[in-house]
Amino acid sequence: MYALLCSCSLEVVYCNYSFQLSLQAVRVLILNTYWRILLLPL
Questions:
Q1: pLDDT classification of 5: cutoffs 50, 70, 90
Q2: Residue 32 and residue 38: Cα distance in Å, rounded?
Q3: Mean pLDDT, to the nearest integer, of 15-23?
Q4: Which pLDDT score, from 0 to 100, does residue 21 have?
Q5: What is the domain count for the chain?
Q6: C-alpha torsion 34→35→37→39, nearest 10
Q7: Owning domain of residue 8
Q8: Which of 3, 5, 23, 27 has its Cα between 20 and 30 A from that of 38?
Q9: Which top-rank group of organisms is this from (predicted)?
Q10: CA distance linking residue 22 with residue 1, whole number of Å
């Protein structure tokens, strides 16, 4: 029972961590695209 609970909480932590990573990656991608569009006229 305890092992199941532990693995479950670990899974939740891992899911949260990967979610944060993907959010950060999306943010970086949007920023890069934004700057590219902004600097395109130059």
A1: low
A2: 10
A3: 89
A4: 92
A5: 1
A6: 160
A7: 1-42
A8: 23
A9: Eukaryota
A10: 32
